[in-house]
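Input record, target 12 of the design panel.
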């Protein structure tokens, strides 16, 4: 037989899925045609999209703080082929915590052979700060950045004239240029020979160069539209936004659980349950009034049928609904006071199965010691089963061991159950 199943497509953009809110339409086309489960799934997706978008907005201060680090997205450290545009990986890394991992230190190299030399200083992020180190060393030739041999470094003291020029033109600026006065050989010859402690008795300072290191002060960050802002203040804003994100996610989780349960509860109201057809009858007569449960069942069915047939109609008639006799009863079940007999029977069944497994192990085993141990366990298990059988017989002989407490009557229609209630 050919498969005649037909699938109906739903547009992902124009199908109404509803929202988890009281002010919006909660009923949707998908819920009416595909059920409440599919509807809740799409509503939850909408909720997550909005919540994650709000979390992204609250994360913008953190992105600005991470971007200011300029450790990964620094144009000075990107090759010429990559300077025109940042790659996706570099952009993602630049707005992450890893971008703050490097301290911004700039080095200038000056020739010792000239009395004065023009120098240019700049900071990609922040402003030019104080001089961190100043001295001479043997240059380490590299094609990418300025380096020197650390074991040849000799620290010098910056002259007062250079400090005045530095403070005037460069300090707390983003870019500056001025003439740096190179110290004479006589000012550092004796000092550096002493610093080397005799390791270099024959020094050729013509091979040395002057190195000037300065840090970039990033205590303030330039933000678009907001201007300069203290780094500590921006960090406090990031902490506050992170706290709001945590509270938002926690609140949304609780609110989403409440809405899902509410949606499911409202949907269940529209469905018919088995309990809508059943009633519970309490205060049943004692065992003296009937011989067995079948007799009690027959008397109960006859009594309820007569009661229901005399009661007025509860539900209004609907045109296309097939009429069913309201007094018709489908089944009657009893709840009993004591189920100890059934628990005893279950224990007997479990112990019997366990004994059969032991017999199988005993027949397949080759060791005599193991067979003897199994025989002892089987004998003890047989004695326990006999005790359970005796207990069951004793409980069965008691008149009050199985007293009936309630009866659960299931009608053919909800009309019958409503009349009986």
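The sequence produced for target 12 reads:
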């Amino acid at each position: 037989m050919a498969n005649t199943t037909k699938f109906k497509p739903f547009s992902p953009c124009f199908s109404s899925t509803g929202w988890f809110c009281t002010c919006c339409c909660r009923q949707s086309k998908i819920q009416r045609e595909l059920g409440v489960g599919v509807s809740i799934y799409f509503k939850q997706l909408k909720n997550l999209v909005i919540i994650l978008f709000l979390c992204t907005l609250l994360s913008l201060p953190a992105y600005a703080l991470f971007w200011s680090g300029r450790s990964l997205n620094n144009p000075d450290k990107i090759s010429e082929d990559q300077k025109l545009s940042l790659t996706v990986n570099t952009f993602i890394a630049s707005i992450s915590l890893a971008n703050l991992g490097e301290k911004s230190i700039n080095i200038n190299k000056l020739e010792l052979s000239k009395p004065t030399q023009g120098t240019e200083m700049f900071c990609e992020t922040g402003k030019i700060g104080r001089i961190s180190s100043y001295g001479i060393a043997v240059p380490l030739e590299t094609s990418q950045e300025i380096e020197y041999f650390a074991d040849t470094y000799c620290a010098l003291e910056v002259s007062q004239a250079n400090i005045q020029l530095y403070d005037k033109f460069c300090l707390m600026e983003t870019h500056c240029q001025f003439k740096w006065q190179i110290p004479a050989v006589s000012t550092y010859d004796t000092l550096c020979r002493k610093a080397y402690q005799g390791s270099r008795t024959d020094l050729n300072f013509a091979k040395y160069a002057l190195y000037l290191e300065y840090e970039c002060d990033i205590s303030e960050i330039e933000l678009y539209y907001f201007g300069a802002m203290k780094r500590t203040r921006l960090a406090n804003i990031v902490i506050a936004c992170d706290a709001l994100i945590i509270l938002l996610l926690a609140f949304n989780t609780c609110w989403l659980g409440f809405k899902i349960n509410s949606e499911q509860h409202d949907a269940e109201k529209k469905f018919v349950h088995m309990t809508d057809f059943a009633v519970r009858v309490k205060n049943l007569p004692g065992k003296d009034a009937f011989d067995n449960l079948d007799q009690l069942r027959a008397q109960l069915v006859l009594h309820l049928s007569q009661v229901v047939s005399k009661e007025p109609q509860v539900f209004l008639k609907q045109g296309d609904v097939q009429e069913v006799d309201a007094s018709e009863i489908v089944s009657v079940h009893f709840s009993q006071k004591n189920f100890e007999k059934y628990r005893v029977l279950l224990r007997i069944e479990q112990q019997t199965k366990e004994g059969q497994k032991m017999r199988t192990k005993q027949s397949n085993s080759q060791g005599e010691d193991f067979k003897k141990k199994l025989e002892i366990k089987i004998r003890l298990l047989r004695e326990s089963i006999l005790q359970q059988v005796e207990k069951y017989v004793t409980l069965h002989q008691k008149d009050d061991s199985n007293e009936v407490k309630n009866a659960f009557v299931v009608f053919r229609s909800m009309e019958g159950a409503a009349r009986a209630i």
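Confidence is low (pLDDT under 50) at residues 318-322.
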